[in-house]
Specification:
The chain is about 40% helix and about 10% strand. The protein is α/β, with parallel strands linked by helices. The chain has three domains: about 110 residues, no CATH class; about 55 residues; about 210 residues, Ribonuclease H-like superfamily/Ribonuclease H (Nucleotidyltransferase, domain 5, 2-Layer Sandwich). The strands form two sheets. The protein has a five-stranded mixed β-sheet with strand order 5-4-3-6-7, with helices on both faces. It has a two-stranded antiparallel sheet with strand order 1-2. Strand 6, helix 14 and strand 7 form a beta-alpha-beta unit. The longest helix is centred in the first third of the chain and has 16 residues. About 35% of the residues are buried.
Length: about 425
Amino acid sequence: MARQKRPPDRAYARLDRSERNRIHRGLERGESARSIAADLGRSPSTVCSEVQRHRYVTSPREHRGQPAPSDEALAQSCPGLAKWPRCCNGCAKRRGYGCSRRPRVYYDPRAAQLQADAELSLSRRGIDADEEEAARQIAAIRDGLARGLSPEQMVASGAVTVSVSTVYRWAERGYAGMSNMDLRRKVGYRKRRRSAPERATSHSPRRSHAAFLALGDECAGAWEMDTVEGRRGDRACLLTLLHRPSRLQLLLPMPSKEAGGPEAWLRRLSSALGPGAARRVFALVLTDNGAEFSDERALAAAIGERPGETRLFYCDPGRADQKGGCEKNHVEVRKVFPKGRGGVSLEGVGEADCAAAMSHVNSSPRPSLGGLCPAAAFRAMLGADADALLDALGVEQLPYAEVLMSPEAVNRARRERGEAPLA
């Protein structure tokens, strides 16, 4: 029966494991290189070079696994190794264990595949770009890391044109002195300590999270409200409001986490916008069960809620994930106001400091917005109302080159005002 040949024109030219297994079987049966090559649809030289490159010593034991010596050295050891297949596969003496010649060398398809894969991986290491382009990409990455930007934000901005996974890989391999220590989220997590559950805030059933979800598509345009604490011992905190669709983050200083602070800020923002604009901007607000949000009537009145309607809602107790956008965006806030060892105190943080922080946080590009920054997305969605709110808070939209996601973003503004840096 005629042997079926494989089609010779294939896009993938490397030998695969099945082909190496076929070469091994042919060697064991004593077939010629031409016969094996014809069955594979390869050239005889491909088969010969494959066997010659991937012969390994099996005896003596102290040299086991090493590549075979040169053909000249093998020919002196055994004249049979001077011709095809140049290895001990298929040798009749080897089958009867009657050969005392050393070294013995064999072609092994598994070892050949591992070696070929290692060579391919090594060939792909490094940077696939000329020296000038590689230097530009690395400089842009190091600049972004130094300013506290994530690889996703750098790529979304267009300043870095390689993929996000490539940025992580270059940092892990230590190119240009980078390391995983430069990636804050990759090395910054600690095991979470379990704290006692907080007492649930009493609120009307119509303000439950289930009632919020029942609004359907309206939920997508809501604000998520929470607070951010400072260092241990601080009484001061920040009121945070995240606009879900645009990812805009508001940071508002409060002297303590007590009822009265959030509604005071909401009334102030509503007054700056005017009644009509305040109702359009703060159409829905979702918050948690903290004590600072316990006065539901005052909060609802502050966002312009009218009799018979519900615009303020609460998450279920212990379900911070129900306002996960706010919780996730606190990672960006913590870059500017870090907590714990090496963090900053919020006791001296004022409105001007929060305005500087908001300008940087809301000017960093977001992959979820297609590379837009939250400030630009917020203005595109709400137009003049957005301009009025950002102007009232002193928030500027900064160019990418000026974005700084570290305490230096606030300290730089404080130095320009002649004030001491944050402690």
